[in-house]
Each structure stands twice: as C-alpha cells, then as structure tokens.
Design goal:
By secondary structure, this protein is an all-beta fold. It is built from no helices and 12 strands. This is CUB domain-containing protein.
Length: 173
C-alpha cells in the first residue's frame, strides 16, 4: 500500500490493481469523494493509527448503463470516474420525481471532460428540450428541470475521466 504523503490515517480506493486517485488523508475534510467502477470490483483500503481518529464512511450503489433514480438526493458519475470511463460507451440516467416536484442537477466543478459528451434533457427522452450540453465544460452552475423528469446522457468517443455531479428533488408535497 502506498499512502503517498499520509503518515497515519488514510483511505485508498483501488479497482483491480489501479489506484483511483490520491489517498484521502486530510483530517477534518468532510467533502464527499466519489469513485465509480468499470469492472464492478472496488477495494477500499483504510489505515487509522492516530488516537481518536474516527475513520470514514463509505456508501455504494449498484447501477447499470441505464438507471432510473428516484431518491430525493443523489450523486451521479460516469462509469470509472474519476479514472477512465472506457471508450465508445453510452450511459443514461433518468432522474424521476413525483408530479409537481422539480429536479436540480449540480455538476462537480473539478471534472475534466476530455472526449466525454454530457447532455442534460428537461424530460424523459433525448428528444425533449436540452437544458445543457456540458461537453468539454467544467461548471459549478446548477440546472433545474421544468417537470418531474430529467435525463442525463453520457457518451464517450475515447478515454476520458468522465463526469460527476449531484442532484436534488424539491418542491411539491
């Protein structure tokens, strides 16, 4: 295990034998860190040696290339994020809320798109109004649906780090 600059406490995420980013070792850092698998085989290595260090919390979700998300809040990422997404892949997420509710999508600001094409549609289908084409952009601006559906479509033509973001359903009763 290679703890990089972490001397005492760290979390390291690997997929097969590849490290999926730098070891997480910042004390008091409550920012969520996300990783998505290509091979469906992620390992979390943890080392905690400092007295009183409370460790970490990990949550996982199982999704395929097309998923319907109904949770009131959630995180989305292209497969393999933040490492390679693969090539010539398509990944579609439909975020669904109750009638009368709206959906807000907030892209992560640190994402590098490269050759990833990310389209956000206001509705259930890709022939609906496109809210935003996030291709080759890195933005913190949020996008809000006008209905209770939002479709996010990732397409990749060559290796790329992909896309990540979060969503929240709000309004209605």
């Amino acid at each position: 295990m290679n703890p990089y600059t972490c001397e005492n406490n760290y979390v390291e995420v690997t997929e097969d034998s590849r490290i999926k980013g730098r070891a997480l070792c910042t004390t008091g850092d409550f920012t969520a860190k996300y990783h998505a698998s290509i091979s469906n085989n992620i390992t979390v290595n943890y080392r905690g040696t400092t007295a009183g260090y409370k460790g970490f919390r990990a949550v996982y979700f199982i999704r395929n290339n097309s998923a319907v998300l109904t949770e009131p809040t959630g995180y989305i990422a292209s497969q393999g994020y933040p490492m390679d997404f693969g090539y010539y892949r398509e990944y579609t997420l439909l975020i669904t809320a109750k009638p009368g509710q709206l959906i807000r999508l907030s892209p992560a600001g640190s994402t590098s798109f490269g050759n990833a094409y990310v389209h956000v549609y206001d509705g259930q289908y890709s022939n609906m109004t496109e809210l935003k084409n996030l291709t080759d952009q890195c933005t913190l601006k949020s996008y809000t649906s006008t209905s209770n559906y939002m479709l996010v479509k990732f397409t990749l033509s060559f290796f790329s780090q992909g896309f990540s973001g979060s969503y929240k359903i709000y309004g209605g009763k």
